[in-house]
Amino acid sequence: MGSERELSVPPERTVGPGADPWRTLRGVWHLARAVLHGAHGLLIVLLRFPWLDRAGRHARIAWWSEKMLRALGARLVVLGSFRPGAKLIVANHVSWLDIMAVHAVCPQARFVSKAEVHHWPLVGRLVGAADTLSIERERRRDSLRVMHHMAEAMAAGDTVAVFPEGTTGDGRTLLPFHANLLQAAIATATPVQPVALRFSDPHHAFSPAALFLGETTLAQSLWRLACARGLVVTVSVLPAQMSAHADRRALAQHLREEIGLVLAQAAEP
Q1: Which domain holds residue 184?
Q2: Which of 8, 77, 160, 189 is close enough to 244 for a disulfide, judged by CB 3.0 to 4.6 Å?
Q3: How many folded domains does the chain comprise?
Q4: For residue 15, is it within any domain?
Q5: Is 135 exposed, middle or buried (0-12, 13-18, 19+ CB in 10 A)?
Q6: What pTM, to 2 d.p., does this model score?
Q7: Domain with 174 in it: what CATH number?
């Protein structure tokens, strides 16, 4: 059976139709909380992680990720559950917050992320502490290296997570899924579990506040999220599927269709 977990957000006041005079104040408040919580996370990584076992680290990652969403004023809704043991999580990509949304539920997930994220202030250090695998997308041969490490991790019982779109989308429609990284799951006969991520608010089934497209900077995205009113992050965990002997392109298309169906249903009135 699936589970649903929510993080409550205090009610807000509005003045006039569509007016929101508290937007800037709300943004400053949420931003301050997020920065302080980020700094707290860095201290945990530097001072506590060296002395924690794997289970202890995962517990801190789940707590920190969930609280970061709450600090930004977001409510987390989880539908479905992850299978135990090794698996490859395949999710659509909307925001840099996607990793935190999944880690709040599945802290053991080792994400494959673009190398530049490791150079982001604060975020890069936290991402590295979660055993993230980095990939240099501009180097085509680097995917072979990452695929090898993914296969090793899953063969050892780890959970690995990928965004097969390769970049962030608008949250409503899906970009083509790249099938290359799925080969690591196929080669090790590791189950694949699709996840549909969606950001919404009281006025939008797909909140524009979560968009992280084009030339949007991390600072701009953070401010929009901090100012958002009633933001909800929905993590829909779909049933795991066997991957042994699968055709990677056919598997990628099938996973894309399953995630797309969940997003299409959310878009219906």
Answers
A1: 23-267
A2: 189
A3: 1
A4: no
A5: buried
A6: 0.86
A7: 3.40.1130
